[in-house]
Design goal:
Strand order of the largest sheet of chain A: 1-4-5-11-10-9-6-8-7
Oligomer: homodimer
Number of helices of chain A: 19
CATH class of the largest domain in chain A: Alpha Beta
Largest interface: A-B, 104 and 104 residues
Structural class of chain A: alpha+beta
Distance between the termini of chain A: 64 Å
CATH topology of the largest domain in chain A: BirA Bifunctional Protein, domain 2
CATH architecture of the largest domain in chain A: 2-Layer Sandwich
Strand content of chain A: 15-25%
Shape of chain A: elongated
């Protein structure tokens, strides 16, 4: 085999996007832009500014922030100079930004891509490159006031996008930590027990209990006490009522602090009438290390894995193994879509120590604590829900209004390209979306077909005699309902106002 | 020194963004968003759809596309799986997209970040991470029709952003290649001689001649003939007139093909009255490998390096060397801003073979050629020009309209937080930008100060007696001109319409 052939065969495998990433185009882009615009409007309604941070950060900035998930971080190759990694979320870069600029308060939104080397499930919106839309409030404020505003943004964001069938699972890290203390878990074991509890949305209690006892070395008794609490969920009022009577909670300082927050939050979300969306769920733990207070995630029916997930997962793994045996290549086929759910569609929480962690790393002795709370919308996951509910036929991916055509014939006919461009330029200069065929001489049928495809509503026609001899343009409405309409002739100098008039009529 | 202290000292060096990248915030973001929106409107006016491709591509996709600049590509670390690189521009991913989806035509814009491991000059908008705004037309069309539309977009883009003092340097690869043939350069040497000629905007002819002869092995005679042509520049009409009488050009098939294109282009840009922006400049070569026809770049006075550039560059290099001797670390100090110009602020050209190159790599025997032409706006460079011309005091980075306050006191005063949230929620639900202080009890002075900082125009005040006893809100205009205005009382149930009315008045 020649070198060249080898090269071609090698390339023939790779005309694709990298695993877990995809191109976006046409109507998908329109839907996604609509999501961005809707959320941006809401974020601005709350007085936020926007920032943009680089796609990659110094590797050290990201280290020690994501617990078990740190293995999913993409690193850049060492090509000399600094060691960098692609950002994993927008929260850590935000905290770095606040610390670096010595800000004592900021309210900001940020819509940008983040990167995770995770198992993709493309049709469920679980990708390796994906957008987050984040809103965060940094600053020392009174308890639960910014937190409840963030709850309101979460609800407003989803309902404005037409998603009403969601619930916000909510918990408090201090209550959760209190429960682990009550159960007798040592402080240094709390995070790993917490991450076991976090799996309760995907696995039954028996599996989680096994992880707590067998894998993570807690006694049967400890697990039973944890189990008693983490099975609790319901409305804020109901769960607060249970906890307020619980001996364990009443005797635990941390849990009581958390409970006081939740009671205040209840007052505020009731004032805003968004309490009906909230489920106080003591099993919610969230994986990330940096949360210190309220934690929450919004879920829909599509969030959970399908009922036959386990079976499908085993099938997929078997298939993958047999493929590997045949051919040792990577493939986009290993996609988990069949056996995972969309997951949470928005999530967040309070992280009061992250900014100070950065400030202290600069060597400052008394770096101020800058408490933060925020929410992150998972655009791709929301997208996959909205797309499945959309009438795609009604979405236009271009906004063309006018199509410029030239009709004529004979030996001297040149298609009037220069004149078409002159006409087009006038339309563009007046802010009107206009196209023509990028050809000199074309027959009318083809031009009408192209106009129809473009979605244009009006044709501006340069007829050979009409234009060259009379200096006139024909303005005609397009679409089957105007098939019999021959349009109107107008002097070429002032055709724009007639076009504008007809566009407004339609 | 303990491990912990070492770790802290290490971190204390690195609370920064990676070299050549920066954070964007506040008014800078407002200016940049304005650039994006202006260009997006123009692109849409020409019937383009938008696409989004991943930030990283398979390494092989980018290989062999950028000539000498390939060394500037960022690679991702090999963490198992595919080898990937950060995209260097948006053109190659676009061509990959067209080939991969077997498109025979598309008109698209794409606004996104690209990555180059180049020497940064931050204040000149030359960065390692920067935005490009690209518009491209792919498809087989008649000569110079899409090309002249792209010229019109270039002019419209810059003038719409308030930049009128630019010129578009324009040339044609076929004319340039013809010149090299006329001079006697062998075909395989053409690209490297072309890249020497490309330096004529930064270096005098004598230096370039030396590179052609001494470094790149051409004879004195060859260099002299090249020199005669590449010194030609002026209006399309003037340079066409010279070339049409030139024996060399008349006898070279390639050059005559290029000249025919330029003559057609002249007709079209004159029809659109944008010819006055264009300078036909035979020294323009552009570095990238993939151009095959028309090439162009827009430059302003800020594009060129300062007159004392050489001197400043030597100073900077000396300083850098002495620093390196002292401390072997990377630093953001090595920035070339003092001795480089902004460079071209928009550029592009025709690349007719790039898509086919990808299609053929898939193993297709008769992959169709999909000719392309496009333009890329350099946002950061345009930004640095616009910012220097802007009145920053007049730019607001938030859009807050209303500030909600509570005034009261006494032992039973609680700040009415829940009631404030109820009022705020009504404003938000009506699409009104509104904020309050995230505190329970605050004195009126602080609330007015915060309202002023937020830029709000209207205060909605919950006065202790007015609100609790009479159920009324006070609506007051803000700003020094309304200092004596006590505002108006309105029933709390229907305060929104009064707020809307007052906002419209202001």
């Amino acid at each position: 085999m020649s070198e060249e052939t080898k090269q071609q065969q090698k390339l023939s495998l790779t005309l694709k996007t990298a695993k877990g990433t995809k191109d976006w185009a046409d109507k998908d882009m329109v839907i996604r832009q609509h999501i961005f615009q809707t959320l941006t409007n809401i974020f601005q309604k709350h007085g936020a500014i926007t920032i943009d941070t680089p796609v990659f950060e110094l590797k050290e900035i990201l280290q020690g922030k994501y617990g078990e998930d740190s293995k999913l971080i993409y690193d850049l190759k060492d090509q000399g100079g600094e060691l960098c990694s692609l950002r994993y979320d927008l929260t850590v870069p935000f905290a770095r930004f606040v610390a670096m600029n010595n800000l004592d308060k900021i309210k900001r939104y940020h819509i940008a891509k983040v990167y995770r080397r995770d198992q993709p499930a493309m049709t469920k919106g679980r990708m390796r490159e994906f957008y987050q839309c984040d809103f965060d409030v940094a600053g020392s404020y009174d308890a639960m006031i910014p937190d409840s505003e963030v709850m309101s943004i979460l609800v407003d964001g989803l309902t404005s996008l037409g998603i009403n069938d969601f619930k916000i699972k909510l918990n408090h890290r201090k209550i959760l930590d209190g429960i682990f203390q009550i159960a007798g878990v040592k402080d240094e074991d709390i995070r790993k027990i917490s991450s076991a509890v976090d799996k309760l949305d995907k696995a039954p209690w028996e599996d989680v209990k096994k992880e707590i006892t067998v894998e993570k070395g807690q006694t049967e008794e400890v697990a039973e006490i944890i189990g008693k609490y983490v099975k609790l969920s319901g409305s804020l009022a109901d769960v607060i009522a249970v906890l307020e009577k619980d001996e364990g909670i009443l005797s635990n300082e941390k849990a009581m602090e958390g409970l006081a927050d939740i009671k205040l939050l209840k007052e505020y979300v009731e004032a805003m009438q968004i309490d009906n969306f909230i489920s106080f769920d003591l099993s919610l733990a969230r994986g990330l290390d940096y949360y210190t207070g309220l934690i929450y995630e919004a879920v829909t029916a599509a969030s959970a894995p399908p009922s036959d997930a386990q079976e499908k997962k085993e099938q997929a793994l078997k298939k993958k193994d047999s493929k590997k045996a045949k051919k040792n290549g990577t493939s986009n086929d290993d996609d988990a879509s069949a056996y995972v759910g969309v997951g949470s569609i928005a999530a967040g929480g309070r992280y009061d120590n992250l900014v100070a962690m950065f400030s202290e790393a600069t060597g400052k002795k008394s770096a101020p604590q800058i408490p933060c709370v925020g929410v992150s919308f998972g655009v791709e996951r929301i997208f996959s829900i909205i797309k499945s509910r959309s009438n795609l036929d009604k979405i236009a991916s271009t906004s063309t209004q006018v199509y410029v055509m030239a009709f004529g014939g004979g030996a001297d006919w040149n298609g009037l390209t220069g004149d078409r461009l002159k006409i087009l330029k006038k339309l563009w200069d007046n802010g009107i979306e206009a196209e023509h065929m990028y050809k000199g001489k074309v027959n009318p049928r083809k031009q009408f077909d192209a106009a129809e495809k473009s979605g244009a509503k009006i044709a501006v026609i340069l007829g050979k005699e009409e234009y060259l001899q009379e200096g006139k343009l024909r303005i005609k409405k397009l679409g089957p309902e105007y098939a019999d309409d021959d349009g109107e002739l107008v002097a070429a100098e002032d055709f724009v106002s007639l076009v504008q008039f007809k566009l407004e009529e339609m």
